[in-house]
Amino acid sequence: MAGNAGEMLVKLLTAWNEADADARADILNEALGASFIYEDPHAPAPFEGPNGMAEYLTIFRENLPDAMLLPMGSPQVTHGTAIIHARLDRDGTPFARLNFVGSMGEDGLTRVTGFVESE
Questions:
Q1: Whole-angstrom distance, CA of residue 105 vs CA of residue 119
Q2: By the 8 A CB rule, do 83 and 73 touch?
Q3: Which domain holds residue 30?
Q4: pLDDT, tens only, 24-35
Q5: Whole-prediction pTM
Q6: Domain count of the chain?
Q7: Mind giving me the DSSP string for 17-55?
Q8: What is the CATH number of the domain that holds 64?
Protein backbone atom coordinates (compact mmCIF):
# COMPACT_ATOMS: atom_id res chain seq x y z
CA MET A 1 0.00 0.00 0.00
CA ALA A 2 1.54 3.26 -1.10
CA GLY A 3 0.71 6.53 0.57
CA ASN A 4 0.07 7.83 4.03
CA ALA A 5 -3.10 8.39 6.05
CA GLY A 6 -3.59 11.89 4.62
CA GLU A 7 -3.27 10.77 1.00
CA MET A 8 -5.65 7.87 1.53
CA LEU A 9 -8.16 10.12 3.31
CA VAL A 10 -8.15 12.51 0.34
CA LYS A 11 -8.60 9.53 -1.99
CA LEU A 12 -11.57 8.36 0.09
CA LEU A 13 -13.18 11.80 -0.23
CA THR A 14 -13.02 11.52 -4.02
CA ALA A 15 -15.19 8.40 -3.78
CA TRP A 16 -18.03 10.48 -2.30
CA ASN A 17 -18.17 12.48 -5.57
CA GLU A 18 -17.90 9.54 -7.97
CA ALA A 19 -21.26 8.81 -9.62
CA ASP A 20 -20.15 5.53 -11.24
CA ALA A 21 -20.44 2.68 -8.73
CA ASP A 22 -17.65 0.60 -10.31
CA ALA A 23 -15.23 3.54 -10.35
CA ARG A 24 -16.22 4.33 -6.76
CA ALA A 25 -15.48 0.72 -5.72
CA ASP A 26 -12.05 0.93 -7.36
CA ILE A 27 -11.24 4.09 -5.39
CA LEU A 28 -12.39 2.47 -2.14
CA ASN A 29 -10.33 -0.66 -2.79
CA GLU A 30 -7.24 1.52 -3.25
CA ALA A 31 -7.78 3.60 -0.12
CA LEU A 32 -9.29 1.21 2.42
CA GLY A 33 -7.90 -1.74 4.29
CA ALA A 34 -9.76 -5.04 4.51
CA SER A 35 -10.63 -4.42 8.18
CA PHE A 36 -11.92 -0.88 7.53
CA ILE A 37 -14.68 0.69 9.70
CA TYR A 38 -16.54 3.94 8.94
CA GLU A 39 -18.85 5.84 11.25
CA ASP A 40 -20.62 9.20 11.20
CA PRO A 41 -23.76 10.65 12.82
CA HIS A 42 -25.87 9.93 9.72
CA ALA A 43 -24.91 6.26 9.53
CA PRO A 44 -27.29 3.98 11.42
CA ALA A 45 -24.29 1.93 12.58
CA PRO A 46 -20.61 1.69 11.66
CA PHE A 47 -19.98 0.22 8.19
CA GLU A 48 -17.31 -2.43 7.74
CA GLY A 49 -14.94 -3.05 4.85
CA PRO A 50 -14.76 -1.47 1.41
CA ASN A 51 -18.06 -3.16 0.45
CA GLY A 52 -19.88 -1.62 3.42
CA MET A 53 -18.51 1.81 2.54
CA ALA A 54 -19.50 1.30 -1.11
CA GLU A 55 -23.07 0.49 -0.07
CA TYR A 56 -23.19 3.59 2.15
CA LEU A 57 -21.90 5.83 -0.65
CA THR A 58 -24.40 4.37 -3.11
CA ILE A 59 -27.21 5.39 -0.75
CA PHE A 60 -25.57 8.81 -0.29
CA ARG A 61 -25.33 9.36 -4.08
CA GLU A 62 -28.96 8.23 -4.58
CA ASN A 63 -30.23 10.60 -1.88
CA LEU A 64 -27.97 13.55 -2.77
CA PRO A 65 -27.08 13.28 -6.47
CA ASP A 66 -26.23 16.99 -6.61
CA ALA A 67 -23.79 16.83 -3.67
CA MET A 68 -20.05 17.47 -3.92
CA LEU A 69 -17.63 16.87 -1.04
CA LEU A 70 -14.76 19.34 -1.25
CA PRO A 71 -11.57 19.07 0.82
CA MET A 72 -10.76 22.36 2.51
CA GLY A 73 -6.98 22.39 2.42
CA SER A 74 -4.52 19.60 2.95
CA PRO A 75 -4.88 16.94 5.61
CA GLN A 76 -2.90 17.17 8.82
CA VAL A 77 -0.99 13.95 9.49
CA THR A 78 0.46 12.66 12.73
CA HIS A 79 2.13 9.28 12.34
CA GLY A 80 -0.63 6.96 11.07
CA THR A 81 -3.56 9.31 11.71
CA ALA A 82 -4.89 12.18 9.60
CA ILE A 83 -7.64 14.77 9.79
CA ILE A 84 -9.10 16.73 6.91
CA HIS A 85 -11.73 19.43 6.89
CA ALA A 86 -14.28 19.38 4.07
CA ARG A 87 -17.39 21.14 2.85
CA LEU A 88 -20.45 19.46 1.39
CA ASP A 89 -22.12 21.50 -1.34
CA ARG A 90 -25.57 20.77 -2.76
CA ASP A 91 -26.23 22.13 -6.21
CA GLY A 92 -23.23 24.45 -5.78
CA THR A 93 -24.39 25.88 -2.45
CA PRO A 94 -22.54 25.16 0.83
CA PHE A 95 -24.65 22.76 2.88
CA ALA A 96 -22.47 21.36 5.68
CA ARG A 97 -18.96 21.37 7.11
CA LEU A 98 -17.32 18.06 7.89
CA ASN A 99 -14.21 16.76 9.58
CA PHE A 100 -12.86 13.31 8.80
CA VAL A 101 -10.33 11.54 11.00
CA GLY A 102 -8.65 8.46 9.56
CA SER A 103 -6.19 5.87 10.83
CA MET A 104 -3.85 4.02 8.51
CA GLY A 105 -2.91 0.34 8.65
CA GLU A 106 -0.61 -1.75 6.49
CA ASP A 107 -3.18 -2.22 3.71
CA GLY A 108 -4.96 1.15 3.81
CA LEU A 109 -7.24 3.12 6.06
CA THR A 110 -8.54 1.02 8.93
CA ARG A 111 -10.97 3.47 10.50
CA VAL A 112 -12.53 6.77 9.48
CA THR A 113 -14.89 8.83 11.60
CA GLY A 114 -16.83 11.72 10.07
CA PHE A 115 -18.14 14.65 12.10
CA VAL A 116 -20.84 16.80 10.50
CA GLU A 117 -21.82 20.41 11.25
CA SER A 118 -24.56 22.41 9.53
CA GLU A 119 -23.34 25.21 7.26
A1: 32
A2: no
A3: 5-118
A4: 999 999 999 999
A5: 0.92
A6: 1
A7: H---HHHHHHHHHHHEEEEEEEE-TTSSS-EEHHHHHHH
A8: 3.10.450.50
